[in-house]
Amino acid sequence: xxxxIISLCLFAxxxxxxxxxxxxxxxxxxIMKNIPSFETANEQLNQISKKxxxxxxxxxxxxxxxxKNYQTELVFLSDDMKVKREEExxxxxxxxxxxxxxxxxxxxxxxxxxxxxxxxIQDEVxxxxxxxxxxxxxxxxxxxxxxxxxxxxxxxxxxxDLVLQKLGYSK
Length: 171
Hints:
The protein is mainly alpha-helical. It has helices spanning about 1-20, 30-35, 35-75, 80-105, 110-135, 160-165, and strands spanning about 25, 140-145.
């Protein structure tokens, strides 16, 4: 009976090691930096972001100017004029905050623009990684650029250059 149990355990351990899983690593930052269309899209996003940021800053400067003028003229204003000016300042500040939210909010214009420019490139990369995973029979592919828990990876596991070759950007 003991021989049978030991034999079964030995058989199970052999079959378990025989079906070892294959792993690979990619560096998404490295891959994206080597794709020209990604760099072009990133530069375009930076230019749009700077333009919109300057628009928001101009409006915020107008609010500050209105507030400074209000403070200097405060002693000469009637109560009704004070309330009216305060309301104008608050309305202008709300408009500036709304503009900022419209451009840079979680569902803002910059987010939408980033999605429209970057998503096709990212999808293409993910498709190439999936195809390589199937071809090379990888069970798991990790991104070493986004994981803080990975301390060391063997360069043999890194398939970033293979992904770039699959996409037509050989290094």
